[in-house]
Design a protein that fits this description.
Layout (H helix, E strand, L loop, with lengths): L1 E11 L1 E2 L2 E8 L5 E4 L2 E3 L6 H13 L1 E19 L5 E18 L9 E8 L10 H12 L15
Parallel strand pairs: 1-7
Antiparallel strand pairs: 1-5, 2-3, 3-4, 3-8, 6-7
Length: 155
């Protein structure tokens, strides 16, 4: 089985009771909301990754203000020629604040829209599990940087 590791950094931006999310477009065309962020480039610091990715996906300049935690997911999926991939995603989650820029949608990337959503309406959104993980880290601020309440299968 082919092993894949992806390291990524994400921002939890909460302002006036709303959270900033980007809408992820999957390969099958489905769309779900996620935290702004994404994969690290080789040699890039995760702090710089979250700044770059948030700007690419939302138009905002952000400043990471706290490291909330690190989350890990693992799943397998089919690859070409009948093989399978054993995928692990390592997700570094920061609290960040908007320092400039203007809200806009990404073009030519993995997301197609960015928007602020009221925190109490997030459960009604079609979203990836990372949104729940990020908000749990933001609310709980666990000393070990890991939420205890979300089993791996829900992430």
């Amino acid at each position: 089985m082919h092993k894949e590791l992806r390291v990524a950094a994400y921002a939890v931006c909460v302002r006036d009771g709303r959270v900033l999310l980007a809408r992820l477009v999957a390969a099958d065309g489905s769309k779900r909301w996620t935290l702004p962020g994404g994969g690290m480039d080789h040699g890039e610091d995760p702090y710089d990754t979250v700044i770059r990715e948030a700007e690419e996906e939302t138009g905002y300049a952000v400043e990471p203000v706290a490291l909330l935690g690190v989350d890990s997911i693992r799943r397998s999926y089919p690859r070409r020629l009948g093989t399978a991939a054993d995928f692990q995603g390592l997700r570094i989650v920061y609290e960040a604040r908007v320092t400039g820029g203007e809200l806009r949608h990404e073009t030519g990337g993995s997301t197609d829209m960015a928007a602020w959503h009221p925190l109490d309406k997030v459960p009604d959104l079609e979203r990836v599990g990372l949104v729940d993980v990020g908000l749990a880290l933001w609310r709980e601020r666990p000393a070990v940087g890991r939420t205890a309440g979300l089993p791996v299968s829900e992430k």
